[in-house]
């Protein structure tokens, strides 16, 4: 019987260490004016580097990587449990060397990069000496990459890139961008685009503006313009026309990590909700005594628990099959459920805190916006619903019967036929 929900004690010890370390040392970083991707800021050297050194000492640095790249080669279940803890803090992924989009970018350079590309970009990225951005979505539409128009044309021994990209996260801190551009406009639809490594100081790379998510200060979502950006031919990443195949490599495990980080955020919201419920009183006692409040808390716990099990089960399937194609529908389902569950729990927590809940002194507004982000970034919910439904429907054949074979009438006919002899004997004897 190999169905087991236990965490092995040695790994649980590591999780316990992470839990305390994130709470005591990392979460406080979220409350000061320093951004987790501002790696060249002198304050980063003072505050974040010592914590990263501690994580390395514990053997927990960049655990998503295989041992060949200095990681532990942990499977997705272990990584999922770790990300549940990391999800509580904006800084934690950077402190543990597993911050998106650098993780995905490192993954594809490791997989498709040349030796020279790896030497120049991969190692400093893995060491978090530099950060990177992924420049794929365009202002005219991000959900359907077949509509992208940014062009890359070969001119002698250089590629020349022209076009605009939208929401290239962290472009303002990045050393280089991975840009997806149309290199072969006449090729088959899924082989028209290639990926390029574009150093940010290349002439013609411009950040038109840094868009913010929600309200507040200047953000870090780069609206990019590429004007006659010339990069040497060897800055092509992977095969010419291979952008789609490469981007699939990028998204597999990352979605599970995001989902478990969302579980971490959901747990935090639920925790604060319960704390408030037992602390805030009306004239007849604490909020926790009200049935309506109890129902909200119970529902939030159930939603979170259902989602957590679904994510961990998907992680387990990935570890078992070691082939993302076999788990496509499960990953799509996780991606669809994630914004809903997060939205539902964060909204309940916000509501239960009343005016304080909508204030900028609580995390809930950010969480609610975050739940919308989860349903948009990395493809909108509808696209993943479509993937899931198509995967499910592949197992069904159409029938020409006017009344389906599974109608109760037909099933009854079948049953009568199956038991005809016994029923006849029974009737005779009666
Ligand atoms: C916080 C954040 C960070 C991001 N980071 C990056 C990044 O680093 N790099 C990058 O390249 N991109 C990034 N993105 C962009 C992201 O990939 C796109 O926003 C996403 O693919 C959706 O594209 P869009 O915003 O243009 O929406 P659209 O494509 O315009 O879609 C808008 C809406 O239309 C509907 N819709 C679209 N297509 C379908 C369909 N097939 N079926 C049914 N309904 C549909 C959905 O309701 C969808 O929400 C980021 C986005 C966010 C919010």
Automatic annotation (TrEMBL):
Task: Enumerate the spans annotated as Acyl-CoA oxidase/dehydrogenase middle domain.
Answer: 133-215
Q: Gene3D superfamilies per the record? A: Acyl-CoA dehydrogenase/oxidase, N-terminal domain, Butyryl-CoA Dehydrogenase, subunit A, domain 2, Butyryl-CoA Dehydrogenase, subunit A, domain 3
Tell me where in this chain the Acyl-CoA dehydrogenase/oxidase N-terminal domain is found. Answer: 15-129
- Keyword Metal-binding part of the UniProt annotation: no
Keywords on record:
FAD, Flavoprotein, Oxidoreductase
**Does the keyword Oxidoreductase feature in the UniProt annotation?**
yes
**Acyl-CoA dehydrogenase/oxidase C-terminal domain boundaries:** 244-393
Q: Which GO terms describe its cellular component?
A: cytoplasm
The Swiss-Prot or TrEMBL record lists the needed cofactor(s) as: FAD
Q: Which Pfam families match?
A: Acyl-CoA_dh_1, Acyl-CoA_dh_M, Acyl-CoA_dh_N
Gene Ontology biological-process annotations = fatty acid beta-oxidation using acyl-CoA dehydrogenase
GO molecular function annotation: acyl-CoA dehydrogenase activity; flavin adenine dinucleotide binding
Quaternary structure, from the entry: Homodimer.
Give the record's family classification.
Belongs to the acyl-CoA dehydrogenase family.
Under which name does UniProt file this protein? Acyl-CoA dehydrogenase
